[in-house]
Amino acid sequence: MSEDSNNLIPYFIPALSAILVNAEDKKGSPLDYEEVISIRDDASCMMMEADDAKKMDESRGYVDLDPENVWYEWQMLRRDLGRKPDIDPGPSFAQMDSKSAEYQNAISHAHETLSKFRAMLPEDGSPRFEAMVKLKLRDGDNSAFMWLANTRLDGNGFIAEIFEVPEFFPNVEVGQQFSVGATDLVDWMVNEGGVLHGGFSLRLHRSRLSEAEQKQFDQHVGVTKYA
C-alpha cells in the first residue's frame, strides 16, 4: 500500500446514480434498501485523489452519489427526477473520522459545556424537544452516531428519544427512549428559533463545506445563527 493510499477516494465508473437508475428501470419498481446497498457494493469504481475526482465531476457536469450515504442520496435524487412513489429517505449521515483530533476536540468541547446545556433544560425533568443529544447507537453489528430529541434531565445524565431511524437499525423504533450517561454523550445542541447552541460536531462538519453547501446545510438543520 502506498504512503498516500489513505487519501484516495472511490470513484464510480459508470456513475453510481446512473447504475441505480438503470437497475430501477429494469426492475420496474423502486429498489429496496438491500438492493441499493448490494448494487453499490458490486459496482465498479476507481480509487483516485480528491482533486482528480473533482475534475471528473466537472467533466460529467454533476456530483455522483456519496457511497457512504447512498440510500438517503438515492431517494433525494429520485425526488429530483420525479420518480414515484416517493420513499422516505431516512436520516442523512455525515461521514467524519471520529478518531481525528478535530472531532475529539468537538467532543471535549461538548463535555466542557454540559453545565450550559443542563441549564437550558427544564428543572422539573420535563422534556424539551428542541434540545438534543448525540450518542453512538448500536443495533446488532451496525452502529451510527445519532441525534436524539425530547431530552430531559435524569440524574447526572439524560433521557432522550430517537426521531428518525436508519434502515439498518431494524430493532429500533421512532419514539424509543434511551438513557444517555454524561460520559456516553458525544455532543449536545439546542435550537432556539434558529439560534444554535452547542452542536460542536455540526459546526465542524459545516466548516468543511463550501459556501453554497453551508447555506443548504443551515436550511436543512433550521439554523440562522450560531451562538
Note down, in words, how this protein is organized.
With 227 residues, the chain is of the alpha+beta class. The protein is built from 8 helices and 9 strands. Strands 6-5-4-3-7-8-9 form a 7-stranded mixed beta sheet. Strands 1-2 form a two-stranded antiparallel sheet. The N terminus is likely disordered.
List the main descriptive attributes of the protein structure presented here.
about 230 residues, alpha+beta, 8 helices, disordered N terminus, two-stranded antiparallel sheet, seven-stranded mixed β-sheet, globular
Beta-strand content estimate: 15-25%
Strand order of the largest sheet: 6-5-4-3-7-8-9
Q: Biggest β-sheet, characterized?
A: 7 strands, mixed
Q: Report helical residue fraction.
A: 25-40%
Count, helices: 8
Mean pLDDT: 87
- H/E series, N to C? EHHEHHHHEEEEEEHHE
Distance separating the two termini: 44 Å
Query: Structural class, please?
Result: alpha+beta
CA-atom Rg in angstroms: 20 Å
Explain briefly what this protein structure is.
With 227 residues, this protein is of the alpha+beta class.
Task: Detail the topology: elements first, then pairings.
Blueprint: E1 9-12, H1 16-27, H2 33-42, E2 45-48, H3 50-60, H4 70-80, H5 101-112, H6 114-119, E3 131-139, E4 142-154, E5 157-162, E6 177-180, E7 187-192, E8 195-198, H7 200-207, H8 211-221, E9 225-226
Parallel strand pairs: 8-9
Antiparallel strand pairs: 1-2, 3-4, 3-7, 4-5, 5-6, 7-8
